[in-house]
Amino acid sequence: MRAHLDTVTNVVTLITCGVIVAFLSQTYLQRSTEATPQIFQKGDQMPAVAGVDLRDANQTLFVVVRESCRFCTESMPLYKKLSELVQNPPYKNKLQIAILTPDPQPDARKYLLTHEVQVNKVASIGPDQLRALRITGTPTLILTRRTGFIEGVWRGKLSADGERSLLQALGIQS
After folding, report:
1. For residue 130, what are the domain limits?
2. Same domain assignment for residues 59 and 118
3. Disulfide check for 64: which of 17, 98, 105, 140 has CB 3.0–4.6 Å away?
4. Average per-residue pLDDT in the chain?
5. Do both 60 and 144 map to the same domain?
């Protein structure tokens, strides 16, 4: 009787483990095969962003940052340099910078001013807008033409080569 009870217990345990493994496998496999938004690439069309008119300049650099992002903070010297450039000829009216952030707009402006980054356009965007823009992390930079076509996408804290690539795409001599 004891051996029969042990056998039944082992069978029930194996079935239970099998069901758990099947459930977890299905959950994780389904999650990994779901259509995740692909990062924009050169030539894609940028969706409209409320408060940003691409016709205001030949190029628009969307900079997606959040205050709690360490790499965003480490990238602030580059963003400061860019914000200073666009305020003066020859880049004034040729290039605009639009900061997009999941942070509340007043907090974002304070964060930017703390790092001496001065831009006219700061838009607070929610999770749905981030997904629509295919933003999966910060910092992300998206360079568009006046027509809305994307010229380049950079993700994360840029290396020296990444910064050179960005400056070259902007037509800025480093």
Report:
1. 54-170
2. yes
3. 140
4. 84
5. yes
